[in-house]
Specification:
Layout lengths: L11 H5 L6 H14 L5 E4 L4 E4 L1 H10 L5 E4 L4 H13 L6 H18 L8 H18 L3 H21 L1 H9 L6 H8 L3 H11 L6 H10 L9 E2 L9 E3 L6 H4 L9 H4 E4 L10 H13 L4 E5 L15 E7 L2 H11 L6 E7 L15 E5 L9 H12 L3 E4 L9 E3 L3 E3 L5 E3 L4 E3 L3
Parallel strand pairs: 1-3, 5-6, 6-7, 7-8, 8-9, 9-10, 10-11
Antiparallel strand pairs: 1-2, 4-5, 12-15, 13-14
């Protein structure tokens, strides 16, 4: 029987940060403890008796009533405890790439939380975010942009484990469920009821979010491949395309020659440079777009540096979505190296960053606010005025206007032969 050992506590958030041992390794650990006793102390948060490291040893010792030693770690705050666990786990060799990505992103988000309390978008906060990303990037031997992508992934996983359960989150980062990180982020943004329905479909084996959505919409995976109508989230385009469906551009009825630009505009629903696509698939998709002159394709990516590796056809516009000065600057550095393509940026102003100096390399800017509040704030005014000053084509998503208001729409379109034409400027009314 265990004597003189404090009753240790298991914190669910802490435990989630520690990947479970494979069955074979757990069985070996259990045999070792039964034979030799628990030779390694269980590390706990001093003064709280919460386990930081040694959950498996604690489980085995408790079950078999084997005594164990406790080693207290002095930590001031809960955030310090989380960071200690993350640093300890990142030293393991048997982590999946998704587990590493989650832990790095969780560390970044935790650091930002620790240094919170400043005005959103303030220069001090922005400077700290840059330094934090660079610090974690250097420790992890990756780039700062990777850390910022990891942060979005970690936040999405945390949201999903809160809404649909920890088991699904564990399967994602252990890669028991192989699902693109970009789709995990999109899934986390869905309304909770839709999220739960999609997760149920994903656990049956669907490999991407768009596939799960298609199954739920049609109940028929063998449906003829065509474009989907654009949703409200991308209402600046006429169509949405899952680029895995290579026959969709030719199967979808082509717009008439005199159709508005929007009816030709096709937004790719997946990042063709993401983990869901290999290089050969990406090249094949680019070739399909090159041969589909009747359409204009919007290619967006988080891996912005990969855009400069391709000779883009004239009916493909390239860009990205940004939500901070850091991510906008990353995109700008790449856009400066690309001369032969129309470049766009979808700017999410929910963080009140000011995106200074990023518009000069663009052909089109789309301004949105994912917080879904309908207001016209100072950030929108600054961006809108800056775009007008350089005669940049601008599109404002409807929820940014609270009364009818004119704003310039995009005026660049392509003929079926692929040559570029610039139409005369006109205005369109915003809606309430």
């Amino acid at each position: 029987m265990i004597k003189n050992i404090p009753k240790l506590k298991i914190d669910e958030e802490f435990a989630f940060l520690i990947p479970p041992l494979p069955d074979e390794e757990y069985s070996q650990l259990e045999q070792n403890i039964l034979r030799d006793g628990c030779t390694d102390p269980i590390k706990v948060w001093a003064g709280h008796d919460i386990i930081l490291d040694g959950h498996n040893r604690h489980k085995i010792c408790t079950k078999e009533e084997i005594e164990y030693k406790v080693y207290p770690i002095e930590l001031e705050t809960r955030e310090d405890a989380i960071n200690w666990i993350i640093d300890n786990q990142l030293g393991r060799r048997n982590l999946t790439e998704s587990q590493r990505s989650y832990l790095r992103g969780k560390r970044y988000n935790n650091e930002k939380k620790t240094h919170g309390g400043q005005i959103r978008g303030s220069s001090d906060q922005s400077d700290h975010s840059i330094k934090t990303a660079e610090k974690i990037a250097a420790e992890s031997n990756v780039g700062p942009a990777t850390i910022r992508r990891d942060a979005k992934y970690a936040a999405a996983v945390d949201s999903l484990k809160e809404d649909v359960g920890q088991d699904f989150g564990k399967k994602l980062i252990s890669e028991e469920i192989k699902f693109p990180k970009s789709d995990v982020i999109k899934l986390a943004e869905k309304p909770i009821d839709e999220k739960k329905t999609l997760v149920s479909e994903i656990q049956k084996g669907t490999k991407s979010l768009s596939q799960a959505e298609m199954v739920l919409q049609t109940g028929n995976e063998s449906q003829k491949e065509i474009f989907s109508k654009a949703t409200a989230e991308i209402e600046f385009a006429g169509w949405s395309w899952n680029p895995k469906k290579l026959d969709a551009p030719k199967n979808t009825p082509a717009p008439k020659d005199d159709s508005e630009v929007k009816q030709r505009l096709v937004y790719l629903s997946e990042d063709i440079f993401g983990e869901n696509f290999d290089e050969d698939e990406t090249e094949e998709i680019v070739q399909v777009m090159r041969e589909s002159h009747q359409w204009i394709f919007m290619v967006h990516t988080e891996y912005i540096e990969k855009l400069e590796d391709i000779d883009w056809p004239t009916n493909v516009w390239i860009g990205c979505k940004v939500d901070s000065d850091d991510s906008a600057q990353d995109a700008l550095d790449v856009f400066k190296k690309i001369d032969n393509a129309i470049k766009f940026m979808i700017i999410d102003i929910r963080l009140n960053s000011y995106f200074e100096g990023v518009l000069s390399e663009l052909d089109w800017v789309i301004i949105c606010d994912s917080s879904n509040f309908s207001y016209w704030n100072s950030t929108v005014s600054i961006l809108f005025d800056a775009a007008l000053e350089i005669d940049l084509c601008t599109y404002l998503m409807p929820n940014l206007t609270v009364q009818p208001r004119e704003y310039p729409m995009i005026k660049k379109q392509l003929t079926q032969s692929g040559t570029q034409e610039v139409a005369a400027q006109e205005s369109s009314q915003g809606s309430t």
